[in-house]
Amino acid sequence: VLPESLRKTISVTKNILLDDIAAMALVRQAGLEQAAMEFGEDVAVAMKTAAQARAALAMLAPADSANEPWPPMRVRGTV
Amino acid sequence: MTEVNWLTASALSQAYAQKTVSPVEVVQKLLKTIDQQDDKIHAYIRVDKEGALAAARSAEQELVAGRMRSPLHGVPIAVKDIIDIAGQPTTCHSKIMLDHVARRDAHVVGRLRAAGAILLGKLALHEFAIGGPSFDLPFPPTRNPWHPEHHPGGSSAGSGAALAAGMVPLSIGTDTGGSIRNPAGACGVVGLKPTYGLVSRRGVFPLAFTLDHVGPMARSVSDVALALDVIAGHDASDPGSAATVARRFDADLERGLRGLRIGFVRHFHESDQLADPEVAAALDEVARVLAQEGAQVREVRLPRLQEFAVPRQVIFLAEAWAIHGKWLRERPGDYGQMSRRKLMPGAFFSAGDYVQAQQLRAMLMVAVDDVFRDVDVLMAANSLDPSCRLDDTVETVRTYTRQARVPFNLTGHPAMSMMSGLSKKGLPLAVQFVGRAFDEATLLRVARGYERVARWQDRRPPSAG
Predict the structure, then answer these.
(1) Dihedral (C-alpha) B32, B135, B202, B413: value to the nearest 10 degrees?
(2) pLDDT tens digits for B111-152?
């Protein structure tokens, strides 16, 4: 069952977030059931933040998906 | 005569050499200042009075015997309470870590000790260096010495405020999204985020492995250079540590600006996001001073702020979740609300999101390096607004991300902030300078060239004793 505080917040932000079942599936997958019960609004805010960031990332996706990203910090310069 | 708690590290070093003041006198004066000031500012989480006095006596005995280990010999320093000092708690300003006692010194602390510096205490921060302020943590939030009702910047809030209030001459902060440069700017001091890999992160509680930097903060550029001399260098126990060679970062400080090429990244604050007019005007004045001193200042373009901010956010959240996920699952109530909200988004990213963000990062690093073919140093905005009231939650949220610092956490280039003016309300404004990777010497030279003319380092908060 979706905690009421999480449900209330999700309904406010439904343009970005998911239906109750999908939201709870994500919460379970993340292992955040306790946080959802105790701090439902915080979990909802976190889900919204992640959804917005993923949407923004999709818009910037590199044209060449084979671009090498490793190692992540390869600072060039004369050491 | 300047009271000893306001002397810079460089001035203390000279005074020790001339035997006009002793480390014990300095530590005693700083402890007295902390007693008088810190119940209003809350810069310190822990002051190690006995340890500092013992170290001061030891430093004094060595000086009497004619031994001066380094320019930081006998100079007091305090570190953000995310950095381990053996035998002392490292709380990270969080209930989660209240019982944690460090077993060994962080690499930077070991280097400072070896150089003869005196460890004065542990400084307040935003919980786990995530952002703040929060009023639901075990320790109160730090306040801005220039205006105690206002935000001191963060997350190294105590590191900036203690300097501005004359409660320490040097401090160490960490910077994952601007957490050295933000409080340095808000508190009117100087803060340097070195090149990624120049200063070891070993013994510093991580926030995001590939974005974390450790760096010095001080009231003058030359003090930042002195501290960097001590803490920089390869550490095999930090996998991100670069194979650097020893050098003097203060070697070029007084060479002036003539002939240097400085790229002004105006679009960060004029079109990507619109800066407060006072911030923008102060930046124009910095550019004028640099040109007057002989630098060639010209406008350059980098990718837009948003292009840096998005991959940085994904990388930050994913890496931070890897660190905090277990605690957030099992002890969510032991975090402050702001930290819960800032950390839990990391649970909802995929591995593909993270890799894609790293791909974007690699492209952005190349883009910034390309600009450095034509200029020696970049200048840009730091924060886009003067600091807001500490209790104004809406304004804190609005202004905290209005900044131009995260690009250089993502790319690893060295970046520093320093005071560039005062707002009408009497709050410090700041400029950011950015250097080529591992070229901190030129970066510091530009900062010193500006400091020498602008002389903001002579100003003190009106309430400071």
Answers:
(1) -100
(2) 999 999 999 999 999 999 998 899 999 999 999 999 999 999
Q: How far is CA B62 from CA B17, B77, B223, in A?
A: 12, 18, 22
Using an 8 Å Cβ cutoff, are B117 and B68 in contact? no
| Amino acid at site B27 | V
Of B341, B344, B359, the CB nearest to A62: B359
Q: Tell if the CB–CB gap between B337 and A60 is shorter than 8 Å.
A: no
Phi, psi of B428 (to 5 degrees): -60, 140
What is the interface pTM, i.e. ipTM, of the complex?
0.91
Instruction: Return the bridge partners of B121, or none.
Output: B47, B78
Instruction: Tell me the two tokens of residue B44.
Output: 């310190």
- Half-sphere exposure of residue B35, counting CA atoms within 13 Å on the CB side? 8
For residue B393, give both structure tokens: 């939650």
Q: Do B404 and B380 touch, CB atoms closer than 8 A? A: yes
Q: Is B94 a catalytic residue?
A: no
Q: Which of B179, B200, B222, B387 is catalytic?
A: B179
Give kind and range of the element (H or E) at residue B430: strand B428-435
What Å distances lie between residue A25 and A19, B1, B352, CA to CA? 10, 67, 19
The C-alpha atoms of residue B242 and residue A74 are separated, in whole angstroms, by: 10
Q: Are B343 and B328 in contact (CB under 8 A)?
A: yes
Q: Cα–Cα distance between B337 and B326 in angstroms, integer?
A: 17
Backbone Cα Rg of chain B: 20
Residue B177 three-state SS: coil
B25-65: pLDDT as tens digits: 999 999 999 999 999 999 999 999 999 999 999 999 999 99
Distance of CA B166 to the CA centre of its chain: 17
Whether B155 is catalytic is: yes
- Rounded Cα distance between B281 and B276, Å, is 9
B456: Cβ contacts below 8 Å, ≥ 6 apart? B188, B418, B419, B420, B421, B428
What's the average model confidence in pLDDT over B273-295? 98
**Residue B209 burial class via C-beta count within 10 angstroms: exposed 0-12, middle 13-18, buried 19 and up:** middle
Residues from chain B that touch A69, judged by Cβ atoms under 8 A, are 355, 358-359, 361-362
- Reported as a single tens digit per residue, the pLDDT across B358-368 is 999 999 999 99
